[in-house]
Specification:
alpha/beta; 4 helices; five-stranded mixed β-sheet
Amino acid sequence: MIYLQEITDEIYEQDRYLLFIYTPFCGTCSLARSMLDKIEAVHQQDIFYEMNASLNPEFMQEYKVESVPCLLIKEDGRVKDKIYAFKSIANIYSYLMEYKPELFATS
């Protein structure tokens, strides 16, 4: 099984990433994680990073993350979007097509 990668300080500094923010005992977070796990399994690559909100209160405050689960999308060095309602895998794909189009490029 593929697991999301924990975000590191080096990743924080990057201009572009997809960050799944969760808390360990959140049932909705578990459902959201399973959607992201399935997407990574289909593409057989790491797409999302993850962060435990409970261990990063400064980040939560700085980026004004209102609740979990949250998919924070950073592009060009700034937060482009925060998705709180994951809804479905198809919904997440609509964001991936916009923010990570290379996943859908044919070789």
